[in-house]
Amino acid sequence: MLTLTRTHHRPPARIRPASDRGASDRGASRRGASGRAASPRVAGLEPLESRRLLSVAVAATAEDVIKINFQTPQSSTPSGYAADTGQTFGARSGGLTYGWNQSATGFTRDRNVTSDQRFDTLVHMQQYGNRTWELAVPNGTYSVFVMAGDPQYFDSVYRINVEGELTVNGTPSSGDRFISGTQTVEVTDGRLTVTNAAGAKNNKLAFIEITPQDVTEPPPPPPGGQVNINFQPAGAETPEGYLADTGQVFGERAGDFHYGWDQSATGFTRDRDDDDSLDQRFDTLIHTQQYGNRTWEIALANGTYAVHLVAGDPQYPDGNYRYNVEGPLAVNGAASSDAPFVEGHVTVTVADGRLTISNAEGAFNNKLAFLEIAPA
């Protein structure tokens, strides 16, 4: 943990298990499901109790002031700061979790022209594509100070958003090469987000300071707590003991849960109303590869979790289902008319405050039915 004070800144069903290996979606019925009895196709799968286990994993407490310097891996780190060297989002030293949505290690700079290291190092935010930076924090209100600039070049228009709010806005000159700004923002998804704002040109980030203003520490997950998610259209009945995912982008859901997709998938949910599928969990699904690959996440306290994943479609057994959970392959199998569902179990460790499910290499027409997560 970094506990610091602010300083002044002066620039110089039928289920095939994952181990049993072995094309098209021709439509989807739209209806609201009625109550259903257990189906013989899902024998051996018992309903699991749904209890609150969510707690947004945090790297800072309400008393911490976090200071991050953007620099090369070889640069010395200013006293009182943590180094960001352009790595993708993940766990860092000091219990902090932060980083970029895509690698920026090749775009860090150390100019070696000024004695104050904070103003001598930087990272490019816009070279070869726009990059987003995030820091895991408890939900709450924060005062954020951002310094942009380059001691050697003044060839930019600095415009940087924090949580969607314009925080840095200015054009450097030969006499004033740094532009700073302070913004008070509200974090509701467990991550403070810094992005390039509209109109920015050659954005360069030097350092950032985040000061909690009004933060509520989330409670730890209850022992033995479990969460179950069913993927379904918004109008479908939600199975007992499950929460509904209807394809919305990541955000707050019922019961103070936070989960969802990296891009909207509401148009790719299905409720088949299949006569043989009496269990709603096996009658609804979401396409995770139509018109692009999609990634799903849920905010969890850092720790180890047992994850049960079921992929499939009761009407169209046309997928080669391959899903990763936190990187490891969890579901791996081709559907068939006799076994339209493929399941997998995996134990994973969450270190960045979110459990992540993604399409694995070799997947074809991936479809996700439901998910169960329990602390291991």
Low-confidence spans: 1-62, 219-223
- Largest sheet, if any? 8 strands, mixed
**How many H/I helical runs?**
0
Assess the beta-strand content as a share of residues. Answer: 35-45%
Query: What is the succession of H and E elements?
Result: EEEEEEEEEEEEEEEEEEEEEEEEEEE
Structural class: mainly beta
Could you tell me the radius of gyration in angstroms?
23 Å
Task: Kindly report the average pLDDT value.
Answer: 83
Kindly report how far apart the N and C termini lie: 26 Å
Bin the helical content.
Answer: under 10%
Task: Please tell me what the overall shape is.
Answer: elongated
Total DSSP E strands:
27
Fold and architecture overview:
The chain is mostly beta strands. The protein has no helices and 27 strands. The protein has strands spanning 15-17, 66-70, 82-84, 90-91, 97-100, 108-110, 121-124, 133-136, 140-149, 158-162, 165-170, 178-187, 191-196, 204-215, 227-231, 243-245, 251-252, 258-261, 269-271, 284-287, 296-299, 303-312, 320-325, 329-334, 341-350, 354-359, 367-375. Strands 1, 15, 16, 19, 20, 22, 25 and 27 form an 8-stranded mixed beta sheet that branches. The protein is elongated and about 75 Å long.
